[in-house]
Amino acid sequence: MSRLLNRLWLLGVLAPLVIGFSGYMGMVIGVRRWPYEVLNTAVITPNVPPGYTLNMARTIDYQDDCELHYDRKMVSDVPGPKGAFRRDVLPDINFARPPMELDGRPWYISERVPEDFPCGPAKIIDSPSAACNWFQRLFWRQTRPDAVTGFNVDCSGTTLLP
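^ thats the sequence. predicted structure below, dont judge the formating
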């Protein structure tokens, strides 16, 4: 009889713990709301000679306090001599917390176009990811489709300030 009571007591303690932990994990994993919305993207210098700076402005509405990460690259839309497209990896952008002081205000981004970048249409591709809780930081970050911003590499000889 005491063995049966020991097993029932163990079951009575473990079952609520397992059910409670499962409910908590379901709640943590289920938080998948994207933490911001891009209101506007403007290319300030749409025609940029090689070696000069591309300037953009983004207006973002931050809606949650999450860790943000952007993988970035600059890609030419003009194939090279072997048919391959030129890709340059840009420095990543990381925020432990979103820059709330820029919430609803333009955020200015400047990137230098390499001297040997092919002339013609090009784009900057931002691949965003976010983590709003410990589970997402460690195991499974939220992702969104890439944000593509087009511009033109102009080799017509016009002189701009670098």
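Helices lie at 2-30, 134-138.
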